[in-house]
Amino acid sequence: MKTIQGPAIFLAQFAGDAAPYNDLASISKWAAGMGYKGVQIPTWDARLFDLKLAAESQAYCDEVLGVLAGEGLALTELSTHLQGQLVAVHPAYDSLFDNFAPKAVHGDSGARQAWAVVQLGLAARASKNLGLKAHATFSGALAWPYIYPWPQRPAGLVETAFAELAKRWRPILDVFDRNDVDLCYEVHPGEDLHDGASFELFLDLLDEHPRCNLLYDPSHFVLQQLDYLQYLDLYHSRIKMFHVKDAEFNPTGRQGVYGGFQPWVKRAGRFRSLGDGQVDFGAIFSKLTQYGFAGWAVMEWECCIKSPEQGAAEGAPFIARHIIQAAQRSFDDFADADVDAAAIQKLLGIREQA
Questions:
Q1: What are the phi and psi torsion angles at 58 (to 5°)?
Q2: Euclidean distance between CA atoms 316 and 113, whole angstroms
Q3: Does some domain include residue 187?
């Protein structure tokens, strides 16, 4: 078994125009001051990171790593959640996702998709230059508007959507393979890959591609009422990244999983700061350690009640308390005794054959 690394923090929800959140040096100092040992960087935020330069310049990557090391921090992974979303966009959401891309490709879904594919390729090369082995993204969605089968879905709709999704992602996964980096999809409502069953559909169409892996975030499974512990039993071999995020689900006579179009604070299912929700992190850290997960425990803060500053300050000690120092020997080794083959046969009542 191996010990999970951490605590680390995903910087996406904290980056901003005001200090100390407006450049990598300042936000790194802020994160280290709260006890974090690693940071996960969103590649779309130019205030923190230049993705194109990182893909092209080893000197720039060394500079980034040096800034982090100066604060005692490691770079855990890069993220292309927003760019990955644009690899597959259903027309119903077309204009809503334009803001995830440069203005030059707004209103042109083909150009926007092509831009996203280039971004993923840059992320693969940048990850290699930075010495990273895993990368976080979203799958995008073509079938999501048809998640509930009413009106009845035409025969073949889901199969066609997933075939197209796999077609778009296979060459990207091949680029990540050439750069020796695992591409980890955050299984998430709003994406075609939103649970285990949908991930299996995708993986099968990709012929079990070795770089098609998972970012595990239990909060999304609480909101779906999916068994997030059994999920670890089923998919642990594909889980290469871990977002530590809490959530709660409190159904009433007025609403349940779908939320009744209510704002986050009024929903039955809502994201919470670490320790304020219902996720059993003790069991999660135990299972991940049992299965030999050696990646980072990265806090992703999202909460409809608590401030991000308080959530971040509480997150590092919360994660640190849950990290298990993996056992290197069996607890009953003290009672071990040397036994030879003859002794074993005698214990079993087996006579050595002439």
A1: -70, -30
A2: 37
A3: yes
3-state class of 279 per DSSP?
A: coil
Cα of first residue to Cα of last residue in the chain, in angstroms, is 42
Rounded to two decimals, what is the model's pTM? 0.94
Instruction: Kindly report, residue by residue over 317-337, the tens digit of the pLDDT.
Output: 999 999 999 877 766 666 677
Question: Is 354 within a domain?
Answer: no
Q: Number of folded domains in the chain?
A: 1
In a domain, 353, yes or no: no
Low-confidence ranges of the chain (pLDDT < 70): 330-335, 352-354
Give the pLDDT score at 246.
Answer: 98
Do residues 144 and 195 lie in contact, with contact meaning Cβ atoms separated by under 8 Å? no
Q: What is the pLDDT of residues 73-120, one digit of tens each?
A: 999 999 999 999 999 999 999 999 999 999 999 999 999 999 999 999
In the numeric block, the tokens 């796999």 are attached to: 166
Q: Nearest Cα to 44, choosing from 115, 96, 108, 133?
A: 115
Give the pair of three-digit tokens for residue 205: 């169409």
| In-domain check, residue 50 | yes
The closest alpha carbon to 210, from 237, 236, 186, belongs to: 237
Residue 78's beta-bridge partner residues? 41, 135
Nearest-Å Rg of the Cα atoms of the chain is: 23
**Closest to 6 measured CA to CA, from 307, 310, 300, 328:** 300
Which CATH number is 88's domain given?
3.20.20.150
> What range defines the domain where residue 128 resides?
5-348
